[in-house]
Amino acid sequence: MTTTHSIPVVDDDHFTAEVLEAERPVLVDFTAAWCPPCRMMKPVLEELAAERDDLAIVQVDVEDSTITAARYGVLSMPTFILFRGGAPVTQLVGARPKRRLERELDAVL
Q1: Which terms are listed as keywords in the entry (predicted)?
Q2: Residue 48 counted as domain residue
Q3: Residue segments in the chain with a per-residue pLDDT below the cut of 70
Q4: What is the model's pTM?
């Protein structure tokens, strides 16, 4: 049985503190409630959050946090951006299987 982990939601006001100033790398899931592929990715991200302590995972709702979404050019959901040391190091667009997401993250971590 796989343990899941709740993914915290970060808004425009807390993005700098929670993501850009984080000690460890942060995978940001830019998502929207109306997006079926985003809902499909939620259990995958919860599993990853439970399994990996080298990485924080947060969600940004593009409807509620338009400033952050615009700042990083998010036009499609889901968009995943991995931040390390306050800077984006990779951007992935679209739903994907867990193993593929893990490989893509491991390649830049």
Answers
A1: Disulfide bond, Electron transport, Redox-active center, Transport
A2: yes
A3: 1-4
A4: 0.95
